[in-house]
């Protein structure tokens, strides 16, 4: 495999999910405007964010089944953006391009149409399957930058979503991704090292604030450690979770230059390497990180061109297939995560998923 260039990551902070109810558009609009102002977007950009979110929320309320909208903050080292993600369970669109055409707005919305929402956004992505549902993701960065949007803003290789169990406002699942030093490819003597990508997903035991505290401790340990080996990272996370409820944790390492994915996990976190028409599992061992952790073992799968890594908690069932979602793996990691969340998440548990997909 060739060298992977411009691996970029965005820090994500999930703020709130808005479920389908009569107050959805007003509640989402107010929260979006307040969030935009909080991160420093100017008044005009904040108004554009509020308008786009209101259109998306009204579409969900009027036309979608089991619709929900997530608001969150994205950050680079020097700037921040508002992102919204909408997820619904149908009816889906047979012709997405038509829905993005000028003047195409279904009755009951603001009338600006999905195409106008896409133009207001700096980054926009959509995937829809008739009879299944639709996921839309849109990012709104500051417009008062002196420099244009960079790949760090627009081409992030990883994204995740977390959603709390019904009745809770905080989620006990958490994820993070970081770039590691990487290894030179054996077939590229004298070339620069290809960076490796490290990903973690933690499902804190139970639900609510105490589960969230355990997951936060795991993510903090993952970000602080200089270790690059999944087993070494998991041992540090194990120590960090002592004194908490503990949780199920999986740590993955993607090595594009070596063409492989490594995973070391304890507890019910599912790992898969997904490619066109393929889904290969990465196993985890029983136990609770922070309490009972047996001898660690790392599992390996090949990383073929065009494949992606998916980690998710047991808040998603494993009974999903990409065969029923044509074209999904041509979309962004955020939209992939959203469709799999829609397809497989259960309401009786916290749900967390992270997708890593680069140009390997």
From TrEMBL:
InterPro entries: HATPase_C_sf (IPR036890), HATPase_dom (IPR003594), PPM-type-like_dom_sf (IPR036457), PPM-type_phosphatase-like_dom (IPR001932), Ptase_RsbX (IPR039248). Pfam families: HATPase_c_2 (PF13581), SpoIIE (PF07228). Signal peptide: none annotated. SUPFAM superfamilies: ATPase domain of HSP90 chaperone/DNA topoisomerase II/histidine kinase, PP2C-like. Residues 178-358 form the PPM-type phosphatase domain. PANTHER family: PHOSPHOSERINE PHOSPHATASE RSBX. This is SpoIIE family protein phosphatase. It comes from Streptomyces albipurpureus. The lineage of its organism: Bacteria, Bacillati, Actinomycetota, Actinomycetes, Kitasatosporales.
């Amino acid at each position: 495999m060739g060298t992977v260039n411009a691996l970029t990551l965005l820090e994500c902070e999930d703020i709130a999910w808005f479920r389908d109810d009569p107050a959805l558009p007003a509640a989402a609009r107010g929260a979006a405007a307040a969030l935009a102002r909080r991160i420093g977007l100017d008044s005009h950009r904040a108004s554009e964010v509020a308008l786009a979110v209101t259109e998306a929320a009204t579409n969900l309320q009027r036309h979608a089944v089991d619709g929900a909208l997530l608001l969150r903050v994205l950050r680079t080292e020097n700037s921040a953006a508002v992102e919204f993600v909408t997820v619904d369970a149908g009816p889906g669109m047979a012709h997405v391009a038509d829905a993005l055409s000028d003047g195409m707005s279904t009755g009951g919305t603001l009338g600006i149409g999905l195409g106008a929402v896409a133009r207001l956004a700096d980054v926009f992505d959509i995937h829809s399957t008739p009879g299944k549902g639709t996921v839309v993701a849109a990012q709104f960065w500051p417009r008062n930058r002196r420099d244009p949007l960079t790949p760090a803003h627009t081409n992030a290789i990883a994204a995740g979503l977390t959603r709390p169990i019904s009745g809770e406002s905080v989620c006990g699942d958490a994820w993070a991704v970081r770039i590691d030093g990487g290894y030179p490819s054996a077939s590229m003597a004298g070339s620069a090292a290809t960076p490796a990508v490290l990903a973690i997903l933690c499902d804190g035991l139970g639900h609510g604030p105490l589960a969230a505290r355990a997951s936060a401790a795991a993510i903090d340990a993952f970000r602080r450690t200089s270790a690059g080996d999944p087993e070494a990272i998991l041992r540090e996370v194990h120590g960090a979770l002592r004194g908490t409820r503990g949780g199920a944790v999986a740590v993955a390492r993607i090595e594009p230059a070596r063409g492989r994915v490594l995973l070391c996990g304890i507890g019910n976190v599912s790992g898969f390497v997904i490619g066109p028409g393929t889904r290969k599992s990465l196993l985890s061992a029983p136990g609770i990180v922070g309490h009972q952790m047996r001898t660690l073992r790392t599992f390996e799968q090949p990383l073929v061109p065009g494949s992606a890594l998916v980690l998710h908690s047991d808040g998603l069932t494993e009974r999903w297939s990409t065969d029923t979602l044509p074209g999904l793996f041509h979309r962004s990691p955020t939209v992939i995560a959203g469709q799999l969340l829609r397809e497989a998440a259960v309401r009786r548990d916290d749900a967390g998923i992270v997708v890593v997909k680069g140009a390997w």
